[in-house]
TrEMBL record:
<dbReference type="InterPro" id="IPR020471">
    <property type="entry name" value="AKR"/>
</dbReference>
<protein>
    <submittedName>
        <fullName>Aldo/keto reductase</fullName>
    </submittedName>
</protein>
<dbReference type="InterPro" id="IPR005399">
    <property type="entry name" value="K_chnl_volt-dep_bsu_KCNAB-rel"/>
</dbReference>
<dbReference type="InterPro" id="IPR023210">
    <property type="entry name" value="NADP_OxRdtase_dom"/>
</dbReference>
<dbReference type="InterPro" id="IPR036812">
    <property type="entry name" value="NAD(P)_OxRdtase_dom_sf"/>
</dbReference>
<dbReference type="Pfam" id="PF00248">
    <property type="entry name" value="Aldo_ket_red"/>
</dbReference>
<keyword id="KW-0521">NADP</keyword>
<comment type="similarity">
    <text>Belongs to the shaker potassium channel beta subunit family.</text>
</comment>
<dbReference type="GO" id="GO:0016491">
    <property type="term" value="F:oxidoreductase activity"/>
</dbReference>
<feature type="domain" description="NADP-dependent oxidoreductase">
    <location>
        <begin position="16"/>
        <end position="315"/>
    </location>
</feature>
<keyword id="KW-0560">Oxidoreductase</keyword>
Length: 337
């Protein structure tokens, strides 16, 4: 079964393997398979589920809500997000304005079939809305009982500090950050993680398996496996392309002896690796087949010895991206439409 960790400086416990439905529900997999995956997660002891209003243009929330029907709500931790465009693309259909945030939480609750979410997250930082306006809207949502806790995603250390200070003034806690983090993508380690430790914020990390690259299924010089993310023209291939070069793929193959020594698959090794960071509360893991969920949860509770952590660093060498500026660099400069 899956271990629990506290989320930030709060009393909320979440499963350290959290089920996420980005790029799958409502798009890549049929709804009945998505439901099977959610039920497999529940069977494996996962109680924390992460989605967003923008995933599959709101359909992912609907699919998750349908899949969780009949479950005891108090036994679940449901997370969603707001920022990216939803709806027909009107002037206020994106961002973190009070208008969009207040309308979006109601839409998310309706689609998820619940009265509240446990964690409501700013999916990106909105450069076009005063931070005070956004945080006041979040404070009101917390007071209304529509969200119990507030988090962010892909914010810089400075943005986290500013948001945390405003939240404190407004009487609520900012408790989580959701960045990309994996053996290959470590840009949060130098600035975001130290700031988060200082503020009492935990990481819920996405793409711990680097969109499948760290499974080792992509072999240098060989065609990509049929049906894999690298062949997905709906968005998956674009997300994964930064890792799809022979140097990265060759080094990833070199991780197999480490996984073998621990009795893990390479995917399990990748998930276990992010969980060695004590500022990480959970690794987000998706699935397109129910059996993938059962495999991924075996990473829970694994301790990787220091010498093997060092060996991983040696194997990957300079293909690891560590530049903390990448968080800001990859963020939207203007509100998307």
């Amino acid at each position: 079964m899956v271990n629990y960790r506290y989320l930030g400086n709060s009393g909320l416990k979440i499963t350290e393997i959290t089920y996420g439905n980005w790029l799958t529900h409502g798009s890549q997999v049929e709804n009945d398979v998505a439901t099977q995956c959610v039920h497999a997660a529940l069977d494996a002891g996962i109680t924390s589920f992460d989605t967003a209003d923008a995933y599959a243009n709101t359909q992912a929330e609907r699919v998750l809500g349908d899949a969780l029907k009949g479950q005891r709500r108090e036994s679940l931790e449901i997370f969603t997000k707001v920022y990216w465009p939803t709806g027909p693309g009107g002037a206020n259909d994106s961002g973190l304005s009070r208008k969009h945030v207040m309308e979006s939480i109601d839409g998310s609750l309706r689609r998820l079939g619940t009265d509240y979410v446990d964690l409501y997250q700013a999916h990106r930082f909105d450069t076009e809305t005063p931070l005070e306006e956004t945080m006041q809207a979040f404070a009101d949502i917390v007071r209304q009982g529509k969200a119990l806790y507030i988090g962010v995603s892909e914010w810089t250390a400075d943005q986290l500090r500013a948001g945390h200070a405003l939240a404190k003034d407004l009487g609520f806690q900012l408790i989580s950050s959701q960045p990309q983090y994996s053996m290959l993508w470590r840009v949060i380690e130098d600035e975001v993680v130290p700031a988060s430790r200082e503020l009492g914020v935990s990481q819920i990390v996405w793409s711990p398996i680097a969109q499948g690259v760290l499974t080792g299924k992509y072999v240098p010089g060989q065609p990509y496996p049929a049906g894999s993310r690298a062949t997905d023209e709906k968005g998956g291939a674009n997300m994964i392309k930064r890792f799809m070069n022979d140097d990265v793929l060759t080094r990833v193959q070199g991780l197999k002896p480490v996984a073998d020594e621990l009795g893990l698959t390479m995917a399990q090794l990748a998930v276990a690796w992010v969980l060695q960071n004590d500022n990480v509360a959970a690794a987000l893991v998706g699935a397109s087949r129910p059996e993938q969920v059962a495999e991924n949860v075996k990473a829970s509770g694994v301790t990787i010895p220091a010498e093997l952590m060092a060996r991983i660093d040696e194997v990957l060498g300079d293909v690891v991206e560590r530049d903390p500026a990448k968080t800001a660099e990859n963020a939207p400069k203007t509100r998307p439409s």
